[in-house]
Amino acid sequence: MHSDTLTIEILPNKPFGCKVTLPAYCKGDPSQLDDDDFKKLHDAVLSHLVVVIPDQAELAPKSQYLLTKRFDPTIPEPKEDSGFAGYGHGKEFRHEQSVLRKDGTTVKSQPQVQILGQGTFGAHEPGNENGSDISLTHPSHTTFHHTPLTPKQIQEEHRTRFYRWHIDSALYDLAPPLVTTLLGIKVPPSTHTQIVTYDDGSNDELEVSQGATCFVSGEQAFSRLSDEEKKFALASSVEYAPHPYIFISPAGATSDGLTMVSEGKEMALDKLPPWEKEKIKTLPMVWKNPVTGKPHLQVHGCCLYKVHTKQDDGSTKTLELKEAREAVHKLMRPAIAPSRVLAHAWSQGDLVIFFNRGVLHSVTGEFKGMNNGKDERRLMHQCNIASGKDPVAA
């Protein structure tokens, strides 16, 4: 039963998150919410961090774009000559050397919306409006981690990994998007499960539905720090590498997906595509939530380059790449403990809206050969848009 106003229901037995039921007047299209109900949705996303709106499989890419854009009034109007027209990762998303290069294709009619998933989809299959066949590849830790699971562990034991804990952002030139919207149009049954294996000596593991998207709260990550760690985090800023997804492409990630293994394999700065010093992103380690006012520990550990910390005497101490990774990993590893992870089990038509400046998230799941020897199929629409302003330090 749909009411005449938006309703919010806390997700039961989860560390955070909520479900939203749309009012009848918007006819199933959340981009048509009136101002009062949209403010409820906006505040729910920034307060509960992850919001699920069911039964959205028919949501048009234009509506998804308009909804996503509405969350951030600072977003500049897209330039028509830009092939990505404001998409949060910019053109680097498709660079041949970027670790993101295989992550989907663009909706031709709405270039801020990306098509993600696994498998080949014919022209005009649900979710493919591009007029020709598309082939999608689900990101697998086997191509990104330093030491991946074995085929036996994947195929027979149904094990997987957190692919990469991250914030959706180019982390070069463009400001991080405020929110991301992710729409499940074709998804495997949520009864298909796999076991996330941390492989870090902790014996931690987490059973999730196949292809679950996992989230952790930056607010909870900060609140559990010791007083000394909080002081360090609040005094620190993170410098990201130029073209970070290309910079890290020759390296391998840690088994928990939090950062990269330091072996000196990163691409030399003079071998990267042309970059400008003023476009390098240096962001606070702790970001302020504009609705709750609470601090969130928000670090993209895979893409960082250096950490700069203001000392009590006013000087600045800089941790170079290896030490910066180790320091951030120490801060973030407790945040991804199994009990703190919200693992969203996808149902067809789920629209998930998450506060990209308040959570970290990760892909999970292996789809290759997992459907009686065949590849599992999945198709999703994702939208995030670079903001007009960087996050505010807590």
TrEMBL record:
Entry keyword set: Dioxygenase, Iron, Metal-binding, Oxidoreductase
InterPro entries in UniProt: TauD-like_sf (IPR042098), TauD/TfdA-like (IPR003819), TfdA_dioxygenase (IPR051178)
UniProt-recorded name of the protein: TauD/TfdA-like domain-containing protein
Domain TauD/TfdA-like as annotated: residue spans: 29-383
Coiled-coil portions: none
Family: Belongs to the TfdA dioxygenase family.
GO molecular function, one term: dioxygenase activity
Superkingdom as given in the UniProt entry: Eukaryota
Names of required cofactors: Fe(2+)
Gene3D superfamilies on file: Clavaminate synthase-like (3.60.130.10)
Keyword NAD tagged: no
Pfam families: TauD (PF02668)
